[in-house]
Amino acid sequence: MKHIVACFLGLVLLLFSCQDKNEKRIAENKKEMARKEIIFSTIEKAWIFYDEPINETAEETVKNWNELRLFLAELSKKPKKTIGAFQQKAKAISKAAMNLNTNIPLQFDKPQIKSRIAVVITKVRMLDLYINLDRIPSEKVVQLIGEINRELATLQREMDKTVEKSKIPLEEGEADLKRMLDSTRAIPNTIPNTETIIIE
To answer: What pLDDT is stored for residue 171 in this prediction?
Structure first.
């Protein structure tokens, strides 16, 4: 009889402890859902990219530079409903950003433009990384969206500056001077091999 009572008490304690664990798990799940909802609403409010060209040069370039046009088009499509949709969109934007390095128009194939593109790519890839973490740092994602917008504007201003510089006419003799300063055209600075011949 004592064994039956002890087993019964043990069973009752086991049921109560299981029920207590279930309540804790349910409470933790509710907290996690609330946290994810806050993160989603924060990111959803901040997900605004400058997807339109900011100057005439950028407008003209978008017509001819397919990769830039696709990148801006990808930025213009805002995901909805779930954080998973934002994660998928970040991957798509990252892929489009990586393509910016291909087929750069000859006019913009310059170190200053390439460095601006590299910064945009870095910021976009960081956004993709942060938004795909298990615990998404929403404040960092929001900050990166602002930084991406700033870098896009800087890239477009640099493109405009490059176009404006190309419109400045060269002064007389400037083209010759540039050719003379070109190190790839210089005569190599080597001493020819001269052997001294001794006559006896």
So the answer is: 64
- Under 8 Å between Cβ of 90 and 84: no
**171-191 pLDDT, tens per residue?**
666 666 666 666 666 566 666
> Could you give the CA distance from residue 51 to residue 124 in angstroms, rounded to a whole number?
14
Is the distance from CB of 58 to CB of 156 less than 8 angstroms? yes
Task: Parse the chain into domains and list their residue ranges.
Answer: 47-166
- List the one residue out of 131, 141, 157 whose CA is nearest residue 54: 157
Instruction: Give 103's DSSP letter.
Output: S
CA–CA gap between residue 155 and residue 119 (Å, rounded): 9
Burial of 43 (0-12, 13-18, 19+ CB in 10 A): buried
For residue 150, give the amino acid letter: R
What the block records as the tokens of 52 is 């339109």
